[in-house]
């Protein structure tokens, strides 16, 4: 059986048509449809175009080998996968850059915090005022709560 004959029969059945019904729609005998479906005859281009129109498919759908179609789809999927792989790599790289920037900012913030602690400690040491100690204690507590390692 040829690709055309297999596809014609499969598509006709998918559309719920008998050979007689399809023959009537394209003004041919059911025997002609039978011959096309068994590969005993090949339709000319006009008949092929008419069959495709009645069945609401393209001529390629009638004559193209499903393996070719799947191969084309597989090739397209591989291309799409390559594109996604490149896009994933790009997103990974961007994520790494953002992670590095975040770590840098965290380190700078930790340095600023250390400087603030040192300044407060110096203030407390220089001016032993009972009211300043609570500021230092509260800052330690705030920093402990903010520690999210």
UniProtKB/TrEMBL annotation:
InterPro entries associated with the record: Cro/C1-type_HTH, Lambda_DNA-bd_dom_sf
Gene3D superfamilies referenced in this protein's UniProt entry, alphabetically: lambda repressor-like DNA-binding domains
Claim: Coiled coil is one of the keywords in the record: no
Positions of the HTH cro/C1-type domain: 8-62
Regions crossing the membrane: none
Keyword Plastid: no
Keyword field: DNA-binding
GO MF entry, a single one: DNA binding
Disordered: annotated segments: 70-99
This protein's name: XRE family transcriptional regulator
